[in-house]
Amino acid sequence: MGDGRRHPQPGDLIEIKRSLVYRHWALYLGDGYVIHVTDVGAKDIFMSVGFSSHLTGTAKMKKELLKDAVGNNDWNVNNKYDRSHTPLPVEKIIQNAENFVDMEFQYSPMRNNCEHFVTLLRYDDKFSEQV
């Protein structure tokens, strides 16, 4: 599954284990920062299928330190889709990600979740095995 590296490189997908079944996804930007989907208005609870699978609502792309996004959860680098999809050049991934910081959008666990977002940035294609 994941490659388990604890020293991510810019453009890497970060899998955060939020519960036994749910994984939150972020994209590593470099210098300790990630971008990931958060629930608008939430202070400490991240938008996740585990917390809000029955909800569709407004979400926001947030740039923050990896350690803050992860909290007490376990995480690893997991570029598992590289076997079937070609990543964009790292510079393009980071440029695209920076353009999404603080952007709000309609969240949908089935069509527009955290994994959809990071795969769009890394591969220019939205997909998620969580749904």
From TrEMBL:
A molecular function (GO) term: phospholipase A1 activity
Sequence ranges assigned to domain LRAT in this UniProt record: 14-130
One of the record's GO cellular component terms: cytoplasm
InterPro entries: H-rev107_PLA/AT, LRAT_dom, Papain-like_cys_pep_sf
PROSITE patterns: LRAT (PS51934)
Chain coiled-coil ranges: none
GO biological process: N-acylphosphatidylethanolamine metabolic process
Pfam families membership: LRAT (PF04970)
Annotated keywords: Hydrolase, Lipid metabolism, Transferase
Protein family (similarity comment): Belongs to the H-rev107 family.
Protein name, per record: HRSL1 enzyme
Species assigned in the record: Irena cyanogastra
Lineage: Eukaryota, Metazoa, Chordata, Craniata, Vertebrata
Gene that specifies this protein: Hrasls_1
